[in-house]
Design a protein that fits this description.
Protein name: RNA polymerase sigma factor
CATH topology of the largest domain: Rna Polymerase Sigma Factor, Chain: A
Shape: elongated
GO molecular function: DNA binding; sigma factor activity
Number of helices: 9
InterPro entries: RNA_pol_sigma-70-like (IPR039425), RNA_pol_sigma-70_dom (IPR014284), RNA_pol_sigma70_r2 (IPR007627), RNA_pol_sigma70_r4_t2 (IPR013249), RNA_pol_sigma_r2 (IPR013325), RNA_pol_sigma_r3/r4-like (IPR013324), WH-like_DNA-bd_sf (IPR036388)
Strand content: under 5%
Keywords: DNA-binding, Sigma factor, Transcription, Transcription regulation
Family: Belongs to the sigma-70 factor family. ECF subfamily.
Helix content: over 70%
CATH superfamily of the largest domain: RNA polymerase sigma factor, region 2, helix turn helix motif
Amino acid sequence: MAAAQAGDRAAYEALLRDCVPLIKAIAGRQGVPRDRRDDVVQDVLLTIHRARHTYDPSRPFTAWLRVIAERRAIDVLRRTRRNDLREVHAPLAFDAYPDEDADPARGVAQTEVSGRVSEALAGLPPSQREAVETLVLQEQTLTEAAIATRRTKVALKVNLHRALKTLRSKLARTEWTP
């Protein structure tokens, strides 16, 4: 740590890397669950970085590190307990209570709208329909869609633009009530 304080970057990187197993061990002794120990490690490493100027080279480094790690482990435990008190994991509880705001008529209207959209998609030229299916419905990136369709990115963009323009005009002519 003294070399790191003097500006030796390699020594500082090695120090941080070598601290990780000790930090995890301290967190484990404090009772931090395994899935939260990496959170403790990150907090400790950030604290070391911010407080490295406070380390006294005449004193043992591991004692200084141990105090920081214990305090950060306690912080993570407190944060975890607070979250556990607020959050409830009961997936079966949702089955017992119906949604009071649910509107069955809305589901029927949504089905009608999706039918109109499917019909409008079917009326598009194949190249435009392919662009909409890959880029919008399958949510592929432009690069992925270009590879999948064996077409250029520019051609896909043009076809998508034309398809959306055609769909807007077709759907605007029909009665639209989402």
